[in-house]
Amino acid sequence: MHPILKLVIQRLALGLLLLLAISAVIFLGVEALPGDTAQAILGQSATPQALANLREQMGLNDPALTRYFHWLGGVVTGDLGKSLTNGTDIATAIGQRLGNTLFLAGCAAVIAVPLALTLGLIAARYAGKWPDKLISAVTLTTISLPEFVAAYFVIYLLTQVFPIFQPVAMVFPGMGFWAKLNAVALPVIVLVMVVLAHMMRMTRAAILNVMQSAYIETAELKGVPPMQVIWRHAFPNAIAPIVQVVVLNLAYLVVGVVVVEVVFGYNALGQYLVDHVTKRDLPVVQAVGLVFAAVYIGLNIFADVVAIIANPRLRHPK
Amino acid sequence: MADPLLDIRNLKIEATVYPPGEKPQDITIVHGVSVSVEKGKVLGLIGESGAGKSTIGLSAMAYGRGGVRITGGEVMVNGRDILKIGAGGLRKLRGHEVTYVAQSAAASFNPAKKLMEQVIETTLRHGLASRDEAEKRAVMLFGKLGLPNPETFGDRYPHQVSGGQLQRAMTAMALCPKPDLVIFDEPTTALDVTTQIDVLAAIKEAIQDTGVAALYITHDLAVVAQVADHIMVLRHGKKVEYGDTRQIIEAPRQDYTRALVSVRSIEHEEKQPTADPVLRVENVTARYRGTAFDVLKNISVELHPGQTLAVVGESGSGKSTLARAITGLLPPSRGRITFAGRELSAEQTARSRDDLRELQMIYQMADTAMNPRHTVGTIIGRPLEFYFGLKGEEKRKRVQELLDEIEMGKGFLDRYPAELSGGQKQRVCIARSLAAKPKMIICDEVTSALDPLVADGILKLLLDLQKIENVAYLFITHDLATVRAIADSIAVMYRGEVVRYGPKSDVLAPPFDAYTDLLLSSVPEMKLGWLEEVIAGRRMESAGN
After folding, report:
1. Any A CB within 8 A of B373 CB
2. Is A301 inside a domain boundary?
3. CATH number for region B6-261
4. Which pLDDT value is given to residue B512?
5. C-alpha dihedral sign at B102, B103, B109, B110
6. Which of B58, B90, B157 shows the shortest C-beta gap to A316?
7. Which of A223, A236, A312 has the CB atom closest to B159's CB atom?
8. A238-268: per-residue pLDDT in tens?
9. What pLDDT shows up at residue A191?
10. Which of A210, A222, A316 to mutate to test the interface with B (most CBs of B within 10 A)?
11. How many CB pairs under 8 A join A and B?
12. What average pLDDT score do residues A26-40 get?
């Protein structure tokens, strides 16, 4: 078998194992919370008899291990259970909101990743000179602003001073693609501002690190222009560390943007999770936690695989 | 007479240095040197490290490595001063009129790109040929330089070919755009002696066939004598002597050149083996964890007290691995190692403190073998404290004695490694190993990173110390001249086996086995026409077979 295929399969298997471990941790964490689900559903005024009946009905009296495997079995077959607060099917609810989350994250990533890489390459080309300093200053400023401050600033600027967009990013099923795009414009701008600096700095650092190599001197002595040296000779050797950071930021765009969702009233997974945490709706919390973990693991496997493929020693063994 | 192709006039080069604890200083590293090369001629630039030879070579492309700046003089290439043509003009010059072959081709090829892509890059960039034509020329050059399967060689990545092949590929890369001048910067220094001779012959032939002019930079006079028409000897950024190759080799005028020509003046009387060897290695076989082949195969050697066993071979022959097996870093899978009459346990961690103390090591890179934040006194004092419990004034006195033994004076006790020269660093490492009062020291390529004259000083010191302390050396080296200078017995290693072993006089006397013959005949000799003789001799042999 080709060594790369083998490595990819290994990584995938490890990822699944990790996900299994995380499911146990999530279940244990939720289990350790004080309080009682039945009590939470029926409220303080429930009679002891009603509580006992509900517990029996929900299987809460079974040992934790049995309930864990019951839950796990459901997860594997696509049944995440029902929400305690409104009785809806969790899988359906998550599916819809995950779509919104991925749409927002995707839009932000499509702008932020190429922009960050380009700015990083330019900063590396002019390291220590004014373009480098300008790029660093601007991106560091935007990352230093808390998300909600940046969000309100962007809202003020682009809806009041220049009324281009609407301040609320409402999306609903059946909305056209362009209408959706228009709706998420502001949150996308904020998210790009937040993730740009980290990826840009890493690109710059990785490129500058490679620029110390003897083969860069060779390229310079071959009369290759500076930007070509960076793009053709340095960048292919700097992909691995850059991808790692890019993926961390992508994961953040999926799982960490609840503040932005709230500010813009965007109905996605982060808000869904926070809503149900406050309502102690534990099955939902468990399910969303597992989805977030899967996203993290999946993206990191992707980064590993890209780093492996980018290495010619692994791609073309002796 | 027509203008020379390259005419460097009164070149001055400066660099900024950052001495520890002091303000940055500008120092001059080339003091008004003039160099000229005519069309189709080869000029050898020779000198020790710090002589400024690479710096002068790179100035022919108006390039300063690190913080190096050209501050004065003119560099005329094809009749124009390239210090005045700006960045765009330099990009046209580099990789077209003047090309460069670096010392370490392994580091100088981009690991992420195929060799062909890199070899024809400049030819395409400067619009000198179509891709097809450039690839044809590259394949032709691969063939001329003796690379295997020239048609497909370019499809490989740098990590898929050997160091010697990369060095040839780099030469092909330099010749591909049909330059007027090629700068060879120590192109064979990093290669094994048996590989060096082939690469050297390939380079020489390619130079002759293409009629290109060359600057050949090296510290090895015997090597440059084989390829250069003229030689310039440099020292401390100044010209020492310039002349045609025959005059420099056969009738040097300056003392410094004479010292370079007659280096290896050490006389060493071979000692007879004694009754009890200090080290006896019997049938040792070893492999690295997770690999399926033995890197040491059934090795048996002996080392007698106060004597030197030289272990010689090319890289990958297993000579450093033998040292790892003896020190216990790589426990052998079979065989016995007896040291000072007692059997050593295979694992280093299971050895007694005396076993550790009496078997010391000195390494090739003195730099990395010392803690840069410890003073010389602390470095040498550590084994005194550790093995003998010496403290305070007593320890200080003993450290000073050791410093005297290695011919370094009083002022060194409180200095840091960064303030020492390469030779001094290696001396400190020697003193540190002597501090443990060892019966035997393993010297792993201890002179390989040093200039010839400095290396000579270290070898003399080691021999003197051997007489005083009666310490035995296991001396690992790839350099046969060093072996001749200091060995009492020799083990020649090849692919994990000892192919020849015995007293020096026997090992270095005919009849030879095939490998030893190849090894001995590959060592460059300081005479004109040596390369042709050897190559012709080998061709005759292979034709006769």
Report:
1. no
2. no
3. 3.40.50.300
4. 87
5. negative
6. B157
7. A312
8. 998 999 999 999 999 998 888 888 888 888 8
9. 93
10. A222
11. 72
12. 79
- pLDDT tops 60 at residue A281: yes
What pLDDT sits at residue B29? 86
- Contact (CB<8Å) B107/A233: no
Residue A177 to chain B, least CA–CA distance (Å) = 40
The predicted pLDDT at position A318 comes to 67
Q: Answer yes or no: are the C-beta atoms of B13 and B199 closer than 8 Å.
A: no
Per-residue model confidence (pLDDT) at position A123:
94
Closest alpha carbon within chain A to B104: A214
pLDDT at residue B59, as a whole number: 92
Which residues have CB under 8 Å from B119's CB, separation 6+?
Answer: B138, B141, B154, B169, B172, B173, B176
Q: Is the pLDDT of residue A8 over 90?
A: no
| Summary mean pLDDT of chain A | 88
- Chain A neighbors of B121, CB-CB under 8 A: 222, 224
The answer, for A233 touching chain B at a CB cutoff of 8 Å, is yes
Average pLDDT over every residue of A278-307: 89
- Which chain B residue lies closest to A312 (C-alpha atoms)? B112
Indicate yes or no: CB of A223 within 8 angstroms of CB of B126.
Answer: yes
Structural domain contains residue A150: yes
Nearest in space to B516 (alpha carbons), one of B493, B495, B540, B533: B493
Count of other CB atoms within 10 angstroms of residue B80: 13
Domain count, chain A: 1
Residue B149: count of CB within 10 angstroms of its CB:
12
Phi, psi of B188 (to 5 degrees): -115, 5
pLDDT in tens, A56-111: 877 777 888 888 888 888 888 888 888 877 888 888 889 888 999 999 999 999 99
Quote the pLDDT of residue A16.
92
Asked if residue A42 is part of any domain, the answer here is: no
Q: Which residues of B touch A233 (CB under 8 A)?
A: 110, 113
Which residue among B104, B125, B156 places its CB closest to the CB of A224?
B125
* Best residue of A218, A220, A224, A314 to probe chain B, by most B CBs closer than 10 Å: A218
Q: Output the 3-class SS for B216-267.
A: EEECCHHHHHHHCCEEEEEECCEEEEEEEHHHHHHCCCCHHHHHHHCCCCCC
Cβ-defined contact of B112 to A313 (cutoff 8 Å): no
A205 within a domain of the structure (yes/no)? yes
Measured between CB atoms, does B121 come within 8 Å of chain A?
yes
- Is the ipTM higher than 0.95? The answer is no
All CATH 3.40.50.300 domain ranges of chain B, comma separated, are 6-261, 279-509
Tell me which residue of B57, B59, B34, B61 sits closest to B47, measured CA to CA.
B57
Residues A170-220 pLDDT 10s: 777 778 888 888 889 999 999 999 999 889 999 999 999 999 899 999 999
CATH of the domain at A268: 1.10.3720.10
**pLDDT, tens only, B254-269:** 888 888 887 566 777 7
Within 8 A of A215 by CB-CB distance, chain B residues are 107-111
> CB of B126 within 8 Å of any CB in chain A?
yes
Give me Rg for the CA atoms of chain A. 24
**Residue of B58, B108, B123, B152 to mutate, interface with A, max A Cβ within 10 Å:** B108
Instruction: Please give the CATH superfamily to which domain B279-509 belongs.
Output: P-loop containing nucleotide triphosphate hydrolases (3.40.50.300)
Contact criterion met (CB < 8 Å) for A225 and B100: no
DSSP B305-323: TT-EEEEE--TTSSHHHHH
Low-confidence ranges of chain B (pLDDT < 50): 1
User: Are residues B110 and A219, on separate chains, in Cβ contact within 8 Å?
Assistant: yes
* Chain A residues whose beta carbon lies within 8 Å of the beta carbon of residue B64: none
Query: Percent of chain A at pLDDT above 90?
Result: 39
Long-range contacts of B410-414 (CB under 8 A, 24+ apart): B412/B376, B413/B375, B413/B376, B413/B377, B414/B375, B414/B376, B414/B377
